[in-house]
Specification:
Layout (H helix, E strand, L loop, with lengths): L4 H11 L16 H11 L7 H14 L3 E5 L2 H11 L7 E5 L4 H8 L4 E5 L10 H11 E4 L2 E4 L6 E5 L10 H10 L3 E5 L7 E2 L2 E2 L6 E5 L12 E5 L2 H11 L23 H11 L2 H22 L2 E2 L6 E2 L5 E4 L3 H13 L5 E2 L19 H7 L2 E4 L5
Parallel strand pairs: 2-3, 2-6, 6-7, 7-10
Antiparallel strand pairs: 1-11, 4-5, 8-9, 8-13, 10-11, 12-14, 14-16, 15-16
The protein binds pyridoxal-5'-phosphate (PLP).
The site of pyridoxal-5'-phosphate has 14 residues, from helix 4 and helix 5.
C-alpha cells in the first residue's frame, strides 16, 4: 500500500498553504466587479442585456463555431440541443455511463432513453469502438434512419462527453455516427478550451454544450452555452430557450412549447470578465499539470495527461491508482489531511433511475471507476 504523506505535502507546497485545499474554486482577478456593477447601475440584471450578446460572441469565437446561445445552465443546454437534433419521446440516445449525472438526465428530460456504452481507457470518454460494436450488433438502417433491433426504438443522437476536458476520439466517433446516420451532440460541459487536432471541442457535433457552473474553468455563477456551426439550428435554439415567442412589438404569441432557459445578464457579465482570463487560466492549469506529472512520475503514480493530437484544458486533473484498495487509501489519506480529492463518478447504471437501460460490458468504465481520483486543480 502506498504511503501518501509526500503527496499531501507536495500539493500543500504547490498551492502554498497549510489550510484546506479544495478541488476547484473560481478566481476573480479581472473585471468581474466592474461588469457586475455595470449591470446594477444600468438595471440590466435579467433576461436581456449587452453582456449576454457579448458572451455569445465570445463563446462562438472561442469554440470556433458560428453561433452560441447563452442558457441558464449546461444541463438545460444539453436538453435543448438533443431536442434540436430531433430527439423525441421514446427515442434512444447513445452515451457513456462514466459521466456526471446531468448527461443522462438531459436525455430523460426529453422522455428519451439513454443507452450506456463503454468509454476508452485513454480518453475516459465515449469509445467509438464501443459505439461501432453496439451498432453492428443492434443497429438497423431503415430508409436512412437508425433503429435498435432489440428495443425497436429509433436511435436519434449520440452524446459523447469530454471527461475532465480530455477530448474523445472524435474522428473515429464522427465516422461511426456518419455510417449509421446518427447526429452527435457533444457534452463539452467540462472542456472549454480543449482541442482535438487543433479544433476546439464543442465544434465537432451538430451542436456542443458548455457549462459555466461555479466549479468549471470559467464561471458565470451558473450558466451554459449551446454552440453550433448551423445558423438555422442555433436560431431555433435561441427561440426555444427564450419561450418560443414570435417577434412582435407588443403581442405575446408563442407558437410551440419553449423554455425560459435564458442566461441572465448579470451571470453573463461575470462570464465575460472570466472569459477575458481564459488563456491565462489555461496556461496556469497547464503549468500545474506539468508539475503534477513530474511529481507523480517519481512516485510511480499515473497522472493523466493529454493524448497526442489533443490539447486538454486540464479542468479537473486526476491520477489513476493501482486498484480500488489503493484508491480508497489515497482518498482517505488526502481528505483526512485537508487536501480535497474525489473519486470519479459512479457509473450511471448504478443509480436507481438508470438501472434498467440497455448497456454494454462497461469493461473500461468499471476499470476507471475503481481507480480514477480527482486532485486539487484550481488556478493558483
Ligand atoms: C459532464 C457534465 N455534463 C453536464 C454538466 C451540467 O452542467 P450544469 O451544472 O451547468 O448544468 C456538467 C457540470 O456540471 C458536467 O460535468
Amino acid at each position: 500500500m502506498g504511503n501518501f504523506d509526500d503527496v499531501t505535502e507536495y500539493i500543500k507546497e504547490l498551492y502554498g498553504t497549510r489550510e484546506f485545499i479544495p478541488l476547484h474554486v473560481p478566481k476573480f482577478r479581472g473585471k468581474e466587479k466592474e461588469y457586475l456593477e455595470r449591470c446594477i447601475d444600468t438595471t440590466f440584471v435579467s433576461s436581456v442585456g449587452k453582456f449576454v450578446d457579448q458572451f455569445e460572441d465570445q463563446i462562438a469565437q472561442i469554440s470556433g463555431t458560428k453561433k452560441a446561445i447563452a442558457v441558464v445552465n449546461g444541463t438545460a443546454g444539453i436538453q435543448v440541443a438533443l431536442r434540436l437534433v430531433g430527439v423525441q419521446a421514446g427515442d434512444e440516445v447513445l452515451t457513456q455511463a462514466l459521466t456526471f449525472v446531468a448527461t443522462a438526465n438531459a436525455i430523460i428530460y426529453n422522455n428519451a432513453h439513454p443507452v450506456f456504452l463503454d468509454v476508452d481507457l485513454d480518453t475516459m470518454g465515449l469509445s467509438p469502438k464501443a459505439v461501432s460494436a453496439f451498432l453492428e450488433e443492434y443497429g438497423e438502417l431503415r430508409d436512412g434512419v437508425c433503429y435498435n433491433k432489440k428495443s425497436g426504438r429509433k436511435i436519434s443522437a449520440c452524446l459523447p462527453m469530454h471527461t475532465f476536458g480530455f477530448p474523445v476520439h472524435l474522428d473515429e466517433l464522427i465516422s461511426v455516427c456518419k455510417k449509421w446516420n446518427i447526429k452527435i451532440v457533444e457534452d463539452a460541459a467540462e472542456s472549454l478550451g480543449s482541442e482535438y487536432k487543433g479544433q476546439p471541442t464543442g465544434s465537432f457535433g451538430e451542436l456542443g454544450v458548455f457549462s459555466f457552473n461555479g466549479n468549471k474553468i470559467v464561471t458565470s455563477g451558473g450558466g451554459g452555452a449551446i454552440v453550433s456551426n448551423s445558423i438555422p439550428l442555433a436560431e431555433k435554439g435561441k427561440y426555444l430557450t427564450t419561450t418560443a415567442k414570435q417577434p412582435h412589438p407588443y403581442e405575446y404569441f408563442h407558437d410551440e412549447l419553449g423554455y425560459n432557459y435564458r442566461m441572465p445578464n448579470i451571470n453573463a457579465a461575470l462570464a465575460c470578465a472570466q472569459l477575458e482570463q481564459l488563456d491565462a487560466f489555461l496556461a496556469k492549469k497547464r503549468a500545474i499539470a506539468n508539475s503534477y506529472a513530474e511529481f507523480f512520475n517519481t512516485k510511480g503514480i499515473k497522472f493523466r495527461t493529454e493524448l497526442p493530437n489533443t490539447k486538454a484544458n486540464y479542468w479537473l486533473m486526476c491520477v489513476e491508482l493501482e486498484n480500488k484498495k489503493e484508491r480508497d487509501a489515497y482518498l482517505e489519506h488526502t481528505n483526512s489531511q485537508g487536501v480535497m480529492t474525489r473519486p470519479i463518478w459512479q457509473l450511471m447504471f448504478r443509480l436507481p433511475m438508470y438501472e434498467n437501460f440497455q448497456k454494454d460490458s462497461q469493461k473500461n468504465a468499471i476499470f476507471l471507476e475503481k481507480r480514477i481520483v480527482n486532485i486539487p486543480s484550481s488556478v493558483r
